[in-house]
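Encode chain A's predicted structure.
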Amino acid sequence: MAAIRPSSPTVGAPAASAAPATPVLPSLGGKKSSYRERVADALRAALIAGELLPGAVYSAPALAARFGVSATPVREAMLDLVKEGLVDTVPNKGFRVSEVSDRQLDEYTHVRRLIEIPTVVGLAATAAPVQLEALRPAAREIVQAAAAGDLVAYVEADTRFHLGLLALAGNAHLVEVVRDLRARSRLYGLTALVEAGRLPASAEEHLELLDALIARDETAVHEVMTRHLGHVRGLWAARQDGDREGR
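Encoded structure for chain A:
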């Protein structure tokens, strides 16, 4: 999937018209939702995947054309993202993607490790196999998106999988904390993984994790989760490597 073009790299430049593109709205697994919610989910996925560039300005009409909807739900969704601190409004231009420092990204990953690893390990003893199997379709979607190189679909399915898994612990506040941390993260290295042909291997870890959970193998669950979240740290660190190479 091609990166979404910014309306303008600077506030002063006029917004560019959107290039024609196939609408990409995430599936919500049968959950009833508005276009606003679906567009917001797709925008969060594009942010996490790094397809909406930090510091760039995007207009609601351009994004609406990208997703094949009217501008109204896009504006509403972007206002939700403003409240979440993911974008800022730029009068008469659109919305600027908030920039995230390397230190912030490192802190987000650290907190995720503290929360997610022990929580998921605990599910090896408490989650019913039928609950875990219900997440397998999302895990397969992740694998399929990785094979297709569709980063937004990959992130959207990955988010559903991990939040759905954490929800089995029965702590709604924990799920919302991780949802926020994921939305604030930026996986700048996903494109590099696609180009290197390594994203499918990372995607397969979701199926590996489910198998370990169903087998009640806490040691294996801990190993997979530690390895998987280690990839998250490596993905955004790829930005630093790219910056150094470009200097």
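The CA atoms of residues 162 and 207 lie 12 Å apart.
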